[in-house]
Amino acid sequence: MIGIGYDIGSSFIKASLVEVQTRNSIARTRVPEVEIPIEVQKLGWAEQDPNLWWQYLCQATQKLLAKAQIKANQISSIGISYQMHGLVLVDQDLNPLRKSIIWCDSRATYYGERAFKTLGKTYCKDHLLNSPGNFTASKLAWVIENEADLYHKAYKLMLPGDFLAAKLSGIPQTTITGLSEGIFWDFKNDKPSNTLFDYYKIDKSLVPDIIDNFTVQATVSEVGAKASGLTPGTPITYRAGDQPNNAYSLGARNTGDVVATGGTSGVVYALTDQLSGEELTKVNTFAHVDYLPQKKMFGKLLNLNGAGIQYRWLQQLMGEVSYVKLNQMANEAPIGSNGLKVFPFGNGAERMLDNKIVNGHISNINFNIHDNNHLVRATLEGIAFALIYGIELLKNDGVVIENLKVGNDNLFISQVFSKTIANTLGITIQMLQATGADGAAKAGIAGGRGGLNNDKIQIIKTIDPNPQSQNQSIESFKNWKKQLLNNII
After folding, report:
1. How does pLDDT run across 240-267, given as a tens digit for each residue?
2. What is the DSSP string of 218-276?
3. Same domain? 236 vs 299
4. 8 Å CB contact between 130 and 183
5. Count of CB atoms within 10 A of residue 482's CB?
6. How many domains does the chain have?
7. Domain containing 195: what range?
8. Final residue of a structural domain among 246, 280, 314
9. Same domain, 264 and 237
10. What is the pLDDT of residues 365-377, one digit of tens each?
11. Which of 29, 200, 332, 359 would bridge with 141, disulfide CB 3.0–4.6 Å?
12. This model's pTM is above 0.85
């Protein structure tokens, strides 16, 4: 039998088939060919049509089954990983009432900051583990105030993965992990936060049934099967946000394990069973995929909005040069890019900068010195330095980082990017053969907590700090940080 996993990103829908017995990947695909559009009606807004996610999930399923030449009835489980923090409001037929306000949309920042002041730091720290910030609950508060007629038509609120599972099964559901990432969960009482719901005037009946991350959550309906190409009755056995899922995919199981991703956004995610709250407004703490009230495991998350999207923006400016070529160009420039600096904050309000919108900056250009090679390297260094700045916040919040686990994709493929992080922090980076869709498929197959503990994940590359260039990287970061603090924020 075979497990299928989906990774629902804001750029692509990825899907993977994994053989149950060996846990080996059989086939992978992604759709569409060009990135899913993000609609920006106003500065700081970011929306996507949930129907597009569903359309592409169906296309990916059919494409994958054809590619692997297998029949739908060979699929024994479904795992779903999804872009976090998005708001999906549906009617009773599970049709979206509006486009999803996705993770990088900044419109609700004011609502979250006002809630933090009103509810108080003590309540937010002890019950929510976060400032409400620009998360799903605050986005719903924006809808309540600005689109009241639409809000009153809503049957359920969902996160992106909940919506797609509902389209497959016909049953609206969510998880503690999902509610925590939306800042709906009261960790002190282990239930949805009545205080937050009352403050935002959110109807509690909008919350779907809460189910476990690892269980037979629902099965594919006749309608879902007809659209997707799957077989009716196929069980949905796992769902999680992309960052908790990524940590699980990369073998993070215990407190102290730290993973990172460099996709559209950049994320560092650390497992812990301890809470600090020192960086409450800049670092997020969510329920991890194996969280239980009697055995709590948290994921501390540091997010940088402008990571891969910054590199993509540069690629477009350079005429769609391949990423392989861009990485080669970066190697031609020296560490520190001869003083050229890039600050990759051009993708909305940055949580790690206290939800400020500072936009992107390119600084210290010298027309007699700098060329395209310098610009490419400065961009990769700038994204790396921004993540390192965030890692300093994680350390302030009690996280100890001795090494980093990453997947073999996106920004970490770049030697300049990976080496900049390893050198500046003085840590080893392990690059593993794992993808989000593979991880979702394997977690779906596991069907229970700890089911992946014996899963073998191949280390394909180890990146160690280079003593000969480490001081240069550290000095370049200090200069970058000094300019960030003095001139940008």
Report:
1. 999 999 998 898 988 999 999 998 899 9
2. EE--HHHHHHHSPPTT-EEEEEEEHHHHHHHHTT--STT-EEEEESSSEEEEEEES---
3. no
4. yes
5. 10
6. 2
7. 2-246
8. 246
9. no
10. 999 999 999 999 9
11. 200
12. yes
